[in-house]
């Protein structure tokens, strides 16, 4: 009986080590990187989409391209993946459910054996009672490691950002400043870009861009230590409120869908730069601002998502279902495409949601406040914005065309927070409205 139990114990332990390489006490494998002529001591986790994931002695995970390895190591990786798939991935969905039930029973049985071992050893110290404990411990370890393995790459840590590098992109733009603490990089701006706005909008809700107080505790916050989410949020059914990214010129970027779930670009709500104004006269993008690429430089991000991952322009590299990719160093980045969803098809990183909001109009927290000045107006059907220009410091002119006639809005603000709007009709008649900004 004793020998039989020991045999079972060693069999289960060997299964555990095979299914979970890099387990407790397993020697690290030495890998040869053909591209850099370096060696890496780590254990194989998985091969996915031509990316190889390894874990070192400190349990840090690194990602490399399969082509980075020597030919011998590439063959080993492929064989290892095939062996693990053969062992673990041949079950159907119903078999997976049955397997989870089996794991539960194995766990209970293992705990029972441990309990029996402790009880018996308290009465008499015999080798057979130690065997119960060893067998129970192996069962518990096997089940727990098997369950941990099913979480996949989503639970992996990713490298932290170099704050100075992040700051260098934002601080290329006048009026944008940054500061950081141990958790976030904070981006401050007045919410007005240094390019023209509004021209090209044919589905207009009568808002015009005014400055916003995105400063101090009301700044935008980007995580410095991003983490992969176990359950990424689809932007088709989530985050229709608030920003999902911040452009490097300090302008927030909202979901490509408006709060009614419509593609804002497809229905004419956006200007030539992919932006428009919200109900608080707050200018923001709904498309990735690729026009900023010239200013930040080729190969640099045009924005950072609110989960902490950078947003780059288009690429020929294969992208995952979230429109992102994992780099050899384990970092993650989003890219853009020409069609909907344009960028960030799902929020790949962990985010905290505002508990006051519900899907689909939920939003990431923290989220700066905007200051509503004028009453929100209804869409002006048939109007198209044909011109927008500066009239000097803190003054703009917007021209829109409706039924073949041109209408003009001149507006400005002073240092006291007083906003003056002059509405000029095609026949030359005018009306004036004045509003006073108040602190919230």
From TrEMBL:
Alphabetical list of InterPro entries matching this protein: YHYH_dom
One Pfam family here: YHYH
UniProt key word Signal: yes
Keyword terms: Signal
Species of the source: Winogradskyella rapida
Residue ranges of domain YHYH in the record: 219-315
Keyword Phosphoprotein: no
UniProt lineage: Bacteria, Pseudomonadati, Bacteroidota, Flavobacteriia, Flavobacteriales
Signal peptide boundaries: 1-19
Protein name, per record: YHYH protein
């Amino acid at each position: 009986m004793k020998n039989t139990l020991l045999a079972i114990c060693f069999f289960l332990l060997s299964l555990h080590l095979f299914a979970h390489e890099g387990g407790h006490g397993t020697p690290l494998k030495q890998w040869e990187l053909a591209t850099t002529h370096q060696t890496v001591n780590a254990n194989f986790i998985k091969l996915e989409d031509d990316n190889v994931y390894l874990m070192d002695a400190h349990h840090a995970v690194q990602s490399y391209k399969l082509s980075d390895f020597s030919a011998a190591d590439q063959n080993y990786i492929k064989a290892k993946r095939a062996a693990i798939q053969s062992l673990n991935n041949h079950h159907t969905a119903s078999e997976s459910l049955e397997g989870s039930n089996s794991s539960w029973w194995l766990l209970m049985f293992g705990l029972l054996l441990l309990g029996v071992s402790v009880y018996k050893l308290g009465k008499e110290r015999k080798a057979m009672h130690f065997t119960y404990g060893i067998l129970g411990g192996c069962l518990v370890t096997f089940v727990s490691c098997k369950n941990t393995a099913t979480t996949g790459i989503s639970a992996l840590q990713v490298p932290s950002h170099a704050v100075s590098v992040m700051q260098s992109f934002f601080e290329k733009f006048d009026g944008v400043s940054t500061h950081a603490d141990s958790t976030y990089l904070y981006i401050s701006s007045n919410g007005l870009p240094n390019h023209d706005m509004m021209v090209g909008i044919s589905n207009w809700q009568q808002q015009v861009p005014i400055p916003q107080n995105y400063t101090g505790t009301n700044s935008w916050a980007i995580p410095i230590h991003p983490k992969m989410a176990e359950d990424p949020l689809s932007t088709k059914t989530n985050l229709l409120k608030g920003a999902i990214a911040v452009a490097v010129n300090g302008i927030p970027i909202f979901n490509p869908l408006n709060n009614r779930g419509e593609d804002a670009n497809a229905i004419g709500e956006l200007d030539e730069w992919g932006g428009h104004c919200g109900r608080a006269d707050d200018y923001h993008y709904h498309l990735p601002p690729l026009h900023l690429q010239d200013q930040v430089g080729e190969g640099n991000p045009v924005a950072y998502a609110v989960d902490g991952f950078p947003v780059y322009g288009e690429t020929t590299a294969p992208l995952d279902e979230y429109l992102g990719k994992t780099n050899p160093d384990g970092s993650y980045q989003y890219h853009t495409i020409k069609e909907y969803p344009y960028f960030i098809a799902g929020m790949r990183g962990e985010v905290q949601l505002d508990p006051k909001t519900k899907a689909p109009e939920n939003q990431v927290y923290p989220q700066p406040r905007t200051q509503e000045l004028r009453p929100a107006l209804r869409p002006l059907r048939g109007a198209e914005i044909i011109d927008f220009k500066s009239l000097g410091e803190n003054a703009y002119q917007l021209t829109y065309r409706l039924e073949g006639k041109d209408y003009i809005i001149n507006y400005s603000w002073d240092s006291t927070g007083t906003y003056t709007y002059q509405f000029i009709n095609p026949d030359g008649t005018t009306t004036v409205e004045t509003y006073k900004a108040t602190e919230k």
